[in-house]
């Protein structure tokens, strides 16, 4: 996410714009409020009012699957998109 996010003032709060791909990965709809906590290992963003549906272990597993099969998954998505057109 580094370098691709944008922080800006929104009323009396601060808003964070994140890449669409990242928002879709975590099922974050526009306008979802986030709690921001600084930690020794970085910043933790926690959606408020959104049920937790993932775990960090699952997230690491997903990263492994995407690293290994990401190109094939991308090709399948492109083929599906062409079929829908």
In brief:
This protein has two helices and four strands.
List the helices and strands and how they pair.
Elements lengths: L5 E5 L2 E5 L2 H6 L8 E6 L2 E6 L8 H29 L1
Antiparallel strand pairs: 1-2, 3-4
CATH C-level category of the largest domain: Mainly Beta
Biggest sheet strand line-up? 1-2
Mean pLDDT: 78
Question: How do the SSEs run, as a string of H and E?
Answer: EEHEEH
What global shape is seen? extended
**Overall helicity:** 40-55%
* SS strand fraction: 25-35%
Which residue ranges are poorly predicted, with pLDDT under 50 across at least 5 consecutive positions? none
CATH topology of the largest domain: Pemi-like Protein 1, Chain: D
What would you say this structure looks like, in words?
With 85 residues, the protein is of the alpha+beta class. The protein has two helices and four strands. The chain folds into two domains: 1-50, Ribbon (Pemi-like Protein 1, Chain: D); 54-85, no CATH class. It is extended. The model has no long low-confidence stretch (mean pLDDT 78). The strands form two sheets. Strands 1-2 form a two-stranded antiparallel ribbon. The longest helix has 29 residues, at 56-84. It is 41% helix and 26% strand. A hairpin with a 2-residue loop joins β1 and β2 (13-17).
Keywords:
extended; single chain; 4 strands; 2 helices; two-stranded antiparallel ribbon; alpha+beta; 2 domains; Pemi-like Protein 1, Chain: D; 85 residues
